Amino acid sequence: MFMVGVLFLSGFGFAGQFQEVKDSRVLGSSGTCGACSSCQDFNVGRALVEVNLKIENLTRIINQKEAELHKLYAEFNRTKSIETLEEIVKLEDEIQLLKSEKEFYKRQKVSLELIKKYTRKTPYGVEVLYYKLPKEDELVKQYIEKVHPVRKDVNLDWFIAYYRQAVELTFDEYIETDTKLREAIKEVKGSNATIEDVLKLIERRRGIWDEIYAYLEERDKLQTLKKLKELGKQQIMIKTITGIQPLAYNFGGINEGSSCLSWSCPPTMSYPPLPEYTPVYYSYASPTTVWVGLYNSSTPNVNKFWGEYCTYEFPSTSTDVKKYWDWAIEKANSKGFYAFKDVGSIQVKLFYSGSAYNPNNGEYQESNLIWQFECHKNPKDGKNECWVGSYKPKLPPYPSTVMFDQYFELYVYKYVLKCCKGGDVGNSCKWSNRHCGGCFAPDASSSQNFAWINRPYQEIIIRWEDS
After folding, report:
1. pTM above 0.70, yes or no
2. Which residues form a coiled coil (predicted)?
3. Is residue 247 part of a domain?
């Protein structure tokens, strides 16, 4: 059994890192995803299905073995036979090896669920939703409360090392207990130990494995989050240089979301709205979704709303906005509204998900950030144009990149978001935007936060002639 334990620790126990989702035993045809920047062919949903099948199959085999074990214990209770006791220990070893493999797949399932929660599939690979990942200081605080370390200057790596060492020390205890068990069986034969001593050691051995599995789960969970954070930072740096690749080849739809009951969402009173018209510090703001509203009026009019579409393709520069107007015309033409290009207009909102410091409660909170502009054919001179409204600032120079450490003045539209889940906000219920049936750009206070600068005039972004 010593060799079984060594094989467990080398082949299973220390195999819970994010990179291990590429293990062919788990993924099969799902593709691979290591510590890369895109993971083009990786299918986390399929990988989860395959891991669940592994767990179900092992559970069935373990149940069969435990039924056999139950019969052996019943026979032993009748006969008190040492030979039967040895068979029990042998079968316990077989079951434990199967359980070790099952626990490995269970940990992979946890890792895959974290990957699913904090990533999204794009035509260019798997993208880490860095802005959704729990902050390291919050994780550290949570584990300090759980572990109670004497030191306070600890970080994520410290806790990963802590659980790794806990596994190794507990496995040493298992080896010692297993050795005592083998010796006790010999001593029972020589009447130097009792059967009760053997049964207690068998039970203690099981308990030690449960401790090892618990430590391994925590270690692998933290390692997965660490890998996701590292990959997310790497992807953000690539985006900062090259801009975000569009997540849709066309402009049809976004990830679907679903409604939550309002009581499922965090109470908005715990997260006050951000202050208006004063500089608000955003530690980051990550591009999420572009919404385009179509109006049967020369300028956007809520009473003349005609339709909408969403896309993940952000402008690559502050003037790269003509495409939204062209796509709106294409959309309208496909529905038979051929006059839209002459009489219609669009309103475009660039949604960002971010983290902002709120001086109202002295904390950082999940907060969206929105830029808005509008386009139409000017009836006076027949030229097409897009402009920012009288209270909106210019678009960022490179709207498709993540913004770090920025101050923004805001116009706050309070308590308008829906309670929903899925889409781009993960499985948990959050106050989020619901355009196009999706859930995206969440805000802890259920508000919308528009970038705001008081301008006394409309500022034209771009004008052009019909080609």
Report:
1. no
2. 48-108
3. no
